[in-house]
């Protein structure tokens, strides 16, 4: 009976949990003013987090979560490109 209490996690579940932790970490760091919402690190944490959650959908697909995380990836990529362009302008 003891094994019934254990949760069996697949590789995609672990990746999804990592993604969730990444997004939560980004949010906590933003709220505690340790990261800027327009900074590269914040955007990368969100990108990797959303991608991890998308991977977790290999286990059980959910259209709502898929669309939310896909949008999260797109917005994060936009933020990364913007941050890199701003860095490039500042260096010159």
TrEMBL record:
Domain spans labelled CBU-0592-like: 12-87
Membrane-spanning segments: 6-28, 40-58, 64-81
UniProt keyword terms in alphabetical order: Membrane, Transmembrane, Transmembrane helix
Domain of life: Bacteria
One Pfam family matching this protein: CBU_0592
Keyword Transcription regulation: no
Keyword Transmembrane helix set for record: yes
Classification via InterPro entries: CBU_0592-like
Name of the protein in its database record: CBU-0592-like domain-containing protein
Phylogenetic placement of the source organism: Bacteria, Pseudomonadati, Pseudomonadota, Gammaproteobacteria, Lysobacterales
């Amino acid at each position: 009976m003891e094994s019934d209490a254990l949760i069996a996690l697949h590789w995609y579940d672990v990746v999804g949990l990592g993604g969730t932790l990444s997004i939560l970490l980004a949010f906590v760091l933003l709220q505690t003013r340790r990261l800027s919402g327009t900074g590269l690190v914040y955007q990368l944490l969100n990108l990797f987090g959303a991608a991890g959650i998308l991977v977790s959908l290999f286990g059980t697909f959910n259209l709502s979560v898929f669309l939310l995380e896909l949008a999260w990836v797109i917005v994060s990529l936009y933020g990364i490109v913007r941050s890199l362009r701003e860095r490039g302008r500042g260096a010159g």
